[in-house]
Amino acid sequence: MKKKATKKNDERALNKKMLQRLIFIHNEIKSGRYPTCEKLKERYEKQTGLDVGIATIYRDIKALRVEFRAPLEYDHEKLGYYYIDDNWEFSVNQITANDIFYLSCAKSLLSNFNGSPVYKQIASVIDFVTQTQVGNKDDLMNRVAMPPLPKVCINEDVWQLIIDALRQNTLLRFDYNGRWNTSTTSRLVRPYQVLLQDGMYFLFGFDEKAAGGKGGERLFNISRMKKVQATSATFKLPKDYDFSTRCGGGRFGAFKDEKKARYEIDFYGPARQFVKDCVWADDQKIHDIDAEDTTTITFTSSQSNKVLEWVLAQGGNARPIAPAEFVKNWKEEIRWMMKNAGIKK
């Protein structure tokens, strides 16, 4: 019976803590220090602040030899472990250096969300996968980065309530202050999706109290959600819940209107190249009139406010042609800007 128990311990399942120890042990041996199990225990505890038994270290050494076929031997003169083959590397996940590079790029692209629960979890997974590839480290990983951008930190308790509600399809109750309607209102929402944009988080779902109690789909900036409470009420997630289907073909981020419109906008000077650098809508068409130094784009979108911000950001190098209501709003915004600047007609 005792022998069976020992065998069962030797065949223990590989877990994250064990992998972290194996990586540490591998690096110590690879360094050429000829460590003993006692030294490995001492250095591991000092570096990590975690306790580990000497028997565990012995089992880890055995795991390297048996499960990972490490060319590992004990030098009786130098009184420590070493690799017969200096080129051997410990690799848990058999992925290429290119894979590691692109995983690291993904982490960099998400760094805009650093300080939030989703970044913490994703970064942890990416770090774990890449750090188990000890032999594939590449300085190129540091050559792709995100420039510093504004970011919003999300309350972890609120985040967990939202994630639980998404998993279980349960309604959320919370107080909210909108961007335009700044007064506090009570909401009861069927959560569909979490949207990530420019370091900010939005909850997309069906608000039971919208439109005078008739209900309607709404977007909520998660940082403005207060007194968030889970409920036991469940809902059936619609098949077409994806927010992207509500944008009318536009690609202008987390915003939607009830109806879509066909836009025509002229761009001038340096903005001509700017408008050709990206796909702004699924059905966009771009036409150059070089003789007039003009590039015209036409597209369909249901994101009028975001389109307006996009046009205004180009200043005098952009002029909307259609639809008429959009052109009217653009001119009204310019009048307000002139008034704020103290410019009279």
Record the SSE blueprint.
Elements: H1 2-10, H2 16-30, H3 37-48, H4 54-66, E1 72-75, E2 80-83, H5 97-109, H6 117-131, H7 156-168, E3 170-177, E4 184-197, E5 200-207, E6 216-221, E7 225-234, E8 261-268, H8 271-276, E9 285-289, E10 294-301, H9 304-312, E11 318-322, H10 324-340
Helix pairs in contact: 2-4, 3-4, 5-6, 9-10
Short summary of the structure?
With 345 residues, this protein is an alpha+beta fold. Helices cover 35% and strands 23% of the residues.
List keywords for this structure.
345 residues, single chain, 35% helix, 23% strand, alpha+beta, five-stranded antiparallel sheet, four-stranded antiparallel sheet, disordered N terminus, 10 helices
Q: Helicity, in percent?
A: 25-40%
Biggest sheet statistics: 5 strands, antiparallel
What fraction of residues sit in β-strands?
15-25%
The computed structural class is alpha+beta
Radius of gyration: 29 Å
Q: If you had to describe this structure to a student in words, what would you say it looks like?
A:
The protein has a five-stranded antiparallel sheet, with helices on one face. A four-stranded antiparallel sheet has the order 9-10-8-11. Strands 1-2 form a two-stranded antiparallel ribbon. The protein has 345 residues and is of the alpha+beta class. Helix 2 (16-30) crosses helix 4 and helix 9 packs across helix 10. It has ten helices and eleven strands. Strand 9 (285-289) and strand 10 (294-301) form a beta hairpin.
